[in-house]
Write a structure and sequence with these properties.
Shape: globular
Distance between the termini: 34 Å
Number of helices: 9
Radius of gyration: 18 Å
Strand content: 15-25%
Structural class: alpha/beta
Largest sheet: 6 strands, mixed
Strand order of the largest sheet: 6-7-8-3-9-10
Helix content: 25-40%
Order of helices and strands: EEEHEEHEHHHHEHEHEEH
Mean pLDDT: 94
């Protein structure tokens, strides 16, 4: 059984704009599935729908065998621990008034009673925070700093550490390297691949950067104007039968 199955989901705003148009796909356990397309094509809206941050108008979202698209917040609560999201802008994702250690502890404290940690251990808050920082190759000294004292790459690593702190099964990576310099981009991609293997994570990797998607993913979906127009194995990226829009993206990359 696939970890995530999306069936014919549509998201239409009150303005009449159809941001997500009859989208279907499956994500397998341990897979990194790429979703690529230009800015404004509906990728981030789809991510918010999958996270149940926004509701869908039609279709089904099946996570680990359970239809979650119509669950109320109380019934959705145990599933929220299993899927997390890393956003494009780490500065906006971190509370500027909280020290890094407090941001890292927040999800754990929220779900503590429901956790059965396999990869991290909790003997003290200090030890737990150190493990998380170690996992994303950051020094322990950053725990007592505030977000404005960190570089962009360091802040993104903190948001990744926060996402894995409750050992989810699935993480949506929504343009995770878009705000970083080239050196930081490569380092974060390498880190994400290492964490996927160590923690047995499944990723939906969303980007407008086909090169990054090609590096990270086994399968790739191409989105245009809210629709999936192409879907293929990574090694078939340059096949002649690719959709014309995919070929446009290839010409850029």
């Amino acid at each position: 059984m696939s970890l995530l199955t999306i069936e014919n989901i549509t998201k239409t705003y009150q303005s009449g704009h159809k941001a997500v148009d009859n989208v279907s796909f499956q994500l397998e356990r341990g897979e990194c599935l790429g979703l690529v397309g230009e800015s404004g094509c509906g990728k981030s809206t789809l991510a918010r729908c999958l996270m149940q941050i926004e509701s869908i108008n039609e279709g089904s979202i099946i996570f680990d065998g359970e239809h979650i698209e119509k669950l109320n917040e109380r019934k959705l609560y145990p599933y929220r621990r299993k899927f997390q999201i890393v956003f494009q802008n780490p500065s906006a994702a971190l509370n500027p008034k909280l020290k890094i250690k407090d941001s890292l502890l927040d999800p754990f404290l929220q779900y503590r009673g429901d956790l059965n940690l396999q990869h991290f251990s909790f003997s003290s808050t200090e030890h737990f925070v150190k493990q998380l920082l170690d996992s994303v190759e950051l020094p322990e000294a950053l725990a007592d700093r505030y977000p404005h004292e960190l570089s962009g790459g360091q802040k993104q690593r903190v948001t990744i550490a926060r996402a894995i702190s409750i050992e989810p099964e699935f993480i949506i990576l929504d343009e995770p390297t878009a705000s970083l310099d080239v050196i930081s981009q490569g380092a974060v991609l390498t880190l994400l691949k290492d964490l996927q293997e160590k923690l047995n994570l499944s990723y939906l990797f969303i980007s407008h950067d086909l090169a990054a998607v090609n590096q990270m993913c086994q399968r790739i979906l191409v989105m245009k104007q809210g629709q999936i127009v192409d879907h293929f194995q990574q090694e078939k990226l340059f096949d002649e039968d690719r959709h014309s829009y995919t070929k446009e993206l290839i010409s850029i990359f």
